Protein 1
Amino acid sequence: MKFVYLIMGPFDSKVDRKAIGKNNNAEIIGVRNLDEAKVVAKSLIGIADVIELCGAFGESGAREIIDATCGKIPVGFVGHLDCQNDLFDEIFS
């Protein structure tokens, strides 16, 4: 099983990536924006068994990644409880 986590921020997917696990079966890849994420996600068809997205993608970004992969890879995205909105706003504003 190959898990890939995409995180959006000031990254370059060509160099900002790290695989871990006994068989490198978990990988984190940094992408700078949704367009880069779609290219990376499409390249993972046939390689990744599941893609998880950081919260910056939200539901609409997750749908775009699903479309980019033609629905061939399960895609999830991270969220948080509403009671922590202020903390997240403070960090990411």
Note: The mean pLDDT is 97.
Protein 2
Amino acid sequence: MLSFLNRSKKDAAASAVAAARPKLELSGPILQQSLQQSIAGCEPLGGIERYIEALNLKSTLFKEALLDGKHETMTAETFGGLCVFMSTVRRRVAPYLEGEAFAVMKAAIGDLLTGREDTSTADARIAEFCNAFPVDKKHRWVRDLAAEILHNVDPERYPLMTRWMWDVKANTGFLREVWFDDQIDHMTLKVPDTYLTFITLREELSQYLTENGIFRDVLTYIDLLCAQIYADYICAQGGSYLRTDFSSPQDPMEYTRRLLGLDGIKAKTNKTRLKSIDGTAFVLDDANLLEQN
């Protein structure tokens, strides 16, 4: 009898989780077209495998700098090196690379990473991280910083949850661009930008990629595919999205690289797109993930 009751409780809990999961209507044709575009667009810089390697290296840099308590002794220079690879963060983070503000940043990162093994607290920890900074339009990048940190230090547990992936308040992001509905341009998606939504989205994209013959580095391929689809949207809008971050594209993958932070170091130089408060370009040695020849 007790066994039956325990099984019933587990079944009820599983049903509750399933009921809470959002139903996502994704467009297969859009995914297929963008996957082919990604493969073709990556060729001039060494092929799609080089992009995958660059994203994996980016993750390694975050792990080496932040895990095992290293965030506690992290220098502003090290943190600045990470910010180089976060396009929506690097233009606004400069005030937090000095003095007491940097101490606040490190403490917030520590709280964000504490208990990361328990993904049920993901939304609460992200909210707490954001509340450690002013809650205004000038600090919307803080959400992206939290999402990038979690994703890069623990990509298996945490899918990419940046605003360009999905921002329910703005009703913009990758999710909207891949939504299967002829009336999407006139719709407001009522899908929360929570951990459960993003993990559900990743599961569906993983299934799509494996069904299309991709079995290695699937999680990294997902990031590249999502960035390609949202980059197409940016191009269609004439670069109006985050105009201060995005200039006119010189090649099909420029916006994709920008979204993924792979454009952080300027080609042929070790100067980066991260600038200090006085406007001096941050210099980074030996971390050019994807230099254009």
Note: Strands lie at 271-275, 281-283.
